[in-house]
Amino acid sequence: MKEPKQMSVSAIQNGTVIDHVPARNLFKVIQILGLDRIDNQITFGTNLESKKLGRKAIIKISEKFFADDDINRIALVAPDAKLNIIKDYEVVEKKVVEVPDYIVGIARCMNPKCITNFEMVTTQFKVVSKKNVLLRCHYCEKITNQENMQII
Ligand code: CTP
Ligand code: ZN
Fold it and tell me: Domain segments of the chain: what residues?
């Protein structure tokens, strides 16, 4: 007999559940979404078992519904994240994140001579490949690849 499903983090009434976040990037997701600066109730669990990710994290934000452009900012650190929109305790919508066309901030340019690495300039990139992410710097035009990508 199948074990009844148990939630490791309590259900929420209304809001957004971000599931399948790699555990090591939980705090990056929190930072990118600015969750440390809002008053909503937030619960999270981390180092939960996941067949796909090894260890995953889950974040539940009550009474918060994100614009796609805002939520897609987490794609660099949580490419497999699944969003569940909750209304009245029911999952009313499921979404996946998509790597955006442009990235502002979030990543560092891998060119040590780039102005963004020695002056207070926010990094800006055009995403030239989404599958194996490649970012082209707006300032120096050098490409930063996934292996060299450092999240700020
Ligand atoms: N959830 C929640 N509060 C609710 C309903 C759901 O926090 N009132 C959470 C669940 O804990 C789960 C996610 O939202 O992490 C998705 O819920 P559901 O679709 O019921 O779960 P699964 O079928 O496991 O979804 P999937 O396989 O797509 O991850
Ligand atoms: Zn650069």
Answer: 15-96, 102-151
Distances (CA, A) of 124 to 86, 136, 152: 33, 8, 12
Give the residue, by CA position, lying nearest to ligand 1 atom 2. Answer: 11
Q: Domain 15-96, what fold?
A: Alpha-Beta Plaits (3.30.70)
Q: What is the pTM of this model?
A: 0.88
Smallest-distance ligand from the CA of 118: 2
Class of domain 102-151 as given by CATH? mainly beta
Check pocket membership of 12 for ligand 1, CB cut-off 6 A.
yes
Note whether 9 and 43 are within 8 A (CB).
Answer: yes
Between CA 85 and CA 18 the distance in angstroms is: 9
Convert the pLDDT of each residue in 65-97 to its tens digit.
999 999 999 999 999 999 999 999 999 999 999
- Kindly tell me the burial class for residue 140, based on how many C-beta atoms sit within 10 Å of its own C-beta (0-12, 13-18, 19 or more): middle
Q: Are 117 and 124 in contact (CB under 8 A)?
A: no
